[in-house]
Every structure is written in structure tokens, then in C-alpha cells.
Amino acid sequence: MLNNIGAQAAPEGIVYYSQRLEAMFKRLDLNGDGKLDAEEVQGQIYLYRRLHRKDSRGYLLLEDLQPRGSHPNGRRLQRRFRQADTNGNGKLNRDEAASIPWLANNFNSLDLNDDNVLTMHELWLVQLALAPRRHPHPHPH
Fold this sequence. Notes:
Elements: H1 2-28, H2 45-51, H3 62-65, H4 75-84, H5 94-97, H6 101-105, H7 107-110, H8 120-130
Helix pairs in contact: 1-8
């Protein structure tokens, strides 16, 4: 039931999530150059890690953070999720989640409906909840 509700709400959720990411990006882009560098992402663990990946160009653009396609979760997470889903049922039990340390370490908090499996939809809901909220009255630059 949770998955059906999420599938119907996903397109609106993606737009909302994208808007929240854009607002955060603009807030962090202190010099207004359209790029986030190491100094601007301090304190933002996810962004810091993205910036320091092997394939990083040394800065992040807004497009680097936006969800691609119709699925809210990133391609990397989708690929790792599929690899971990050894029985192919679209869900990760605790044994399957063990191959992705941050899922295994946070399994209980990510299992939103307490059914002892994780779905991409649950990960999307957590991702949406973690995105920065829009301020009711944006401050002009």
C-alpha cells in the first residue's frame, strides 16, 4: 500500500524536492557563482562527500544535485539497491541490506512501515524529508 501511494505522489514529490534543493543550493552559494566549492559545503556531509568523489571536478553545480528522470532516487542508489536485492523482489531484507553499510546501519529508521524490509519508496520518503525546506518568504539576493 505504501508503494502505491508513493508511486502516485512521486512526480509532485520530485518537483517539490527539486525546488527545495535549488533553494538550498542558492543559500549555500555564498559568492553567487553558480558553483558550490569546498568552503561553501562545509557542514553539509552529503554535499561534502559528493564534492570529494574521485570523479569530482572540484565544485558542484545545481544539476549535479537534481534528481534525473522520473525516479526520485539517484541512479547510483538504484544500481546498488538492485545489486543488493538478490531475490529480485524490489525489497531489501536485513541480510540484503548488509551489503550497503549506511542502509544496514540505519535499517530501523529507514524501515518506515516496520515491515522488516526496505523499499526504494521508503528511501525516497527519507530523502524527501532530509531535503531543506523552502522558506515561506525567500530573501532576495
